[in-house]
């Protein structure tokens, strides 16, 4: 399941669903995370899930793609400040519709918690005005531990993911910049 | 007009560069044309692109909705397919893609995901997800 989700997130062009599954969710709440919306909508309604391993979609990585422009640490940070608030807004809605479903934990980790941790790791981020999003809470740590089976990151990234949000700004910047250099190709893994 | 089984929704926001390549890839499928339709939703008008889409018989919807979900919702209002495949303006389908989707949903699938290839702006393969 985590392989399917890891593969689906970031590439909505590789996903197909029945039309009625999309009509059952509030698409107007989807700012940027169409992949996560299609995945969540599909999983909530799906009886049969097919993960076709054949390479049938081409995903182009280019400089106009905010999520993939890694030309410098500063550019990555600036793009992250633009997109994370919208992604977190999307994720908050998705959390409200997966609650109680068999996919709650895995969807919560991939679409919400990992995004929130990345947001909190940004050294210069503004406050969003939502206590749920502006600080690391004990429940986040418990949820993160509970979702360990779903993590596909290397161990070095797992440590950084949980550590960075709680560091002072100067240390955070050093750690996040180190992670940026370390993971220049992580997006393609 | 006959019902289609798959609606391919191509969404574009500001970017023009790769859009026609994306649409062409959706039209050059091994799946028979009468089984699917292509719908483009974009937030701009472009004489060259719009003329080409018309020549190709592709539905062309203008939308100033900035959200991805809003654009999909507008396309769903005209989509005739039972199955929805999304194609972002900078991605492409390989020729067997919709045949794979068709076979999966005809066999009862409700959710389908396929492997994919990362390429750069020069078309060089960077990485693959899925099996070779």
Short description:
The complex is a heterodimer of chains A (189) and B (132). Chain A contains nine helices and two strands; from the N terminus they run H-E-H-H-E-H-H-H-H-H-H.
CATH structural architecture of chain B: Alpha-Beta Complex
- The count of helical stretches of chain A stands at 9
Largest sheet of chain A: none
In spatial order, strands of the major sheet of chain B run: 3-2-1-4
The topology string of helices and strands of chain A comes to HEHHEHHHHHH
| Helix and strand composition category of chain A | mainly alpha
Shape of chain B: globular
What's the number of domains of chain B? 1
Distance between the termini of chain A: 17 Å
Number of strand segments of chain A:
2
Quickly count the domains of chain A: 1
What does this structure look like?
The complex is a heterodimer of chains A (189) and B (132). Chain A has nine helices and two strands. Chain A is mainly alpha-helical and 189 residues long. Chain A has one domain. Chain B is an alpha/beta fold and 132 residues long. Chain B has one domain (6-129): Spore Coat Polysaccharide Biosynthesis Protein SpsA, Chain A. Helix content of chain B is 30%, strand content 30%. Chain B contains four helices and seven strands. Chain B has helices at residues 19-27, 47-56, 68-78, 97-106, and strands spanning 6-12, 36-42, 59-62, 83-88, 92-93, 111-119, 125-129. In chain B, strand 2, helix 2 and strand 3 form a beta-alpha-beta unit. Chains A and B meet through helix 1, strand 1, helix 2, helix 3 and strand 2 of A and strand 1, helix 3, strand 4, strand 5 and helix 4 of B. Strand 1 (15-18) of chain A pairs antiparallel with strand 4 of chain B.
């Amino acid at each position: 399941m985590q392989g399917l989700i890891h593969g689906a997130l970031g590439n909505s062009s590789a996903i197909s669903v029945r039309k009625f599954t999309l009509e059952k969710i509030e698409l107007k709440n989807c700012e940027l995370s169409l992949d996560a919306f299609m995945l969540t909508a599909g999983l909530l309604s799906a009886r049969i899930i097919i993960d076709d391993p054949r390479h049938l979609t081409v995903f182009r990585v280019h400089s106009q793609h905010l999520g993939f422009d890694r030309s410098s640490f500063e550019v990555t940070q600036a793009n992250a400040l633009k997109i994370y608030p919208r992604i977190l807004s999307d994720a908050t809605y998705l959390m409200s519709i997966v609650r109680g479903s068999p996919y709650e934990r895995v969807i919560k980790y991939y679409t919400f918690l990992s995004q929130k941790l990345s947001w909190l790791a940004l050294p210069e981020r503004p406050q969003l005005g939502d206590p749920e999003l502006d600080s690391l809470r004990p429940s986040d740590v418990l949820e993160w531990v509970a979702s360990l089976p779903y993590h596909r990151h290397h161990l070095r990234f797992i440590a950084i993911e949980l550590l960075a949000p709680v560091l002072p700004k100067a240390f955070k910047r050093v750690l996040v910049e180190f992670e940026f250099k370390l993971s220049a190709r992580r997006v393609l893994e | 007009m006959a019902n289609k089984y798959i609606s391919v929704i191509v969404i574009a926001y500001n970017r023009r560069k790769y859009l026609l390549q994306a649409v062409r890839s959706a039209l050059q499928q091994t799946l028979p044309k009468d089984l699917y339709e292509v719908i483009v939703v974009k937030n701009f008008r472009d004489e060259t692109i719009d003329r080409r889409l018309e020549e190709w018989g592709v539905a062309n919807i203008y939308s100033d909705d900035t959200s991805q979900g809003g654009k999909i919702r507008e396309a769903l209002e005209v989509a005739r397919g039972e199955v929805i495949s999304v194609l972002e303006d900078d991605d492409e389908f390989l020729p067997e893609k919709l045949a794979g989707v068709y076979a999966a949903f005809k066999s009862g699938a409700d959710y389908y995901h396929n492997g994919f290839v990362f390429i750069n702006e020069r078309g060089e393969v960077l990485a693959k997800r899925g099996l070779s």
